[in-house]
Amino acid sequence: MTILIPILGDQLSHDLASLQGVARVDAVLLMMEVAEETTYVRHHKAKIALIFSAMRHFAEELRAAGWAVDYVRLDDPANSGSFTGEIARAVERHRPNAIRTVEPGEWRVLTMIQGWAKRSGVPVELLIDDRFICGILEFQTWAQSRDDLVMEFFYREMRRKTGLLMTANGRPEGGQWNLDNENRVPPKRGLNYPEPMAFVPDAITREVMTLVAERFAGHFGRLESFSLPVTAAQARRALEHFVRTALPDFGTYQDAMVTGQDWLYHSWLSPALNLGLLTPIEVARAAADAYAAGHVPLNAAEGFIRQIIGWREYVRGYYWLEMPDVADANALAATRPLPGFYWTGETDMLCLAEAIRNTRDNAYAHHIQRLVVLGNFAMLAGVRPQEVADWFLVVYADAYEWVELPNVIGMSQHADGGRMATKPYASGGAYVDRMSDHCGRCRYDVKQKTGPDACPFNALYWDFLARHEGRFRRNRRMANMYGTWDRMKPEVREAYRASAEAFLDALEPAEAGWAR
Ligand code: FAD
Ligand code: DLZ
User: Mean pLDDT in the chain?
Assistant: First the structure.
């Protein structure tokens, strides 16, 4: 009896469902570095290095634990270049009786797996990925029971399910489910920002970095500062470090942006989480335990836990509920190509330049840079959502379609017509000014509303509301903004629209070939 167990690059967990209940003598674990996965979009160099290094470390750990691991390297001359091709070759080598694998993170890969049994003549067992707190079917049942998909209500279900920050009588700790009214404080001078734990590349990582530097030289991003955790043991140390040094201030300064400060109080745990080096429940428990021990305040623990058991689980459920149609959604009929500065960073808007620098150097930008700066600009400018989604999938070390696409199409571009968010996350320069120190150092003036020196976010915001009046005017959550627009003199409204048009006309589109 031989069972072939493919383990994909984001399934690097020792308690993976496919490894349970199988005798080691009966199993061959198959891990595949394949060209198709490295180039279906042209990932940031650091992302490829991270995945290959973590895969190679995980294979060593599996071997040390007594598993037979068949590891196909990218530079193996016989490598077919695709998961499906490697399954066919592995079936030739091992003649398995069955293939057993865990549901993948992407629709694209699921359609591949659905063809394996027919192509190879070997039955394929597809197991639920129980590393997530909420299963795909469970989310679908929740969604069917409701008229809307408001995340807050899903989050409360997850609090009840996990018991995290719940009192013995089933009430939320502190009496409130959500403490965001204590969060979103602007950054002050004199704060000390802890850095995430940095790991010096070992021999395996250095070998992978050389491979990536040679083979993927034309891909976006820098590799030199690579220091991410590549094993579960390192990821646990990074989690402990975050809980001790940054979590206490996580909630308070969650929306802050500071020039030259790339992480502020964020965790930078998403790459390890999304690879499977950490599980969401252990990360959320670490925060709850720190609160119980009196080390972090409730607003920090609650805010952080909401991101993990709320948003992260929610977007995964949304992805499988809405795929495949959501990938092509474009409710606002946006047609503009992505501006070239998303790849070069060459823009005078300091908030954008800073977010893109962080992205290029670290394959990272924190949530508010992604949402309020990069996503907001693309939506206001009317960039085609699929080009925005490709960019986000390329540039971040934590980007897999199940988590990237809902955040782009649903949360940031409103391209799903409001299925995820009842109102678009649109804002002008004032919000960036309130939450950051960028505007005081920027070549544009956030206080000026129109003209060549005004912050472009101001005119773009009003132009966006005017362009989409037919869709949004009846939205009760946007009534105030349309009230303000209505009270403006016609010549003021016209000046906003002319300013936006002049700015947009001058935008250079990106050169072809960066993303695909
Ligand atoms: P922290 O601020 O420390 O948050 C803790 C954890 O909560 C994160 O590690 C992450 O696992 C989870 N989390 C927080 N917000 C979200 C969210 N909206 N969706 C899912 N998980 C969340 N996250 C990804 O993991 N991969 C992506 O490709 C991705 N693309 C995004 C694209 C856009 C347009 C936006 C607005 C958000 C995107 N996010 C994505 C969500 C979020 O920005 C990142 O998870 C976060 O910035 C990762 O940094 P961190 O670990 O320091 O997060
Ligand atoms: C993202 C990625 C890359 C760059 N390379 C590989 C690879 O060579 N082998 C592999 O198993 N996985 C890789 N991945 C992650 C996969 O794309 C990921 O498993 C699927 O997208 C499903 O989420």
Answer: 97
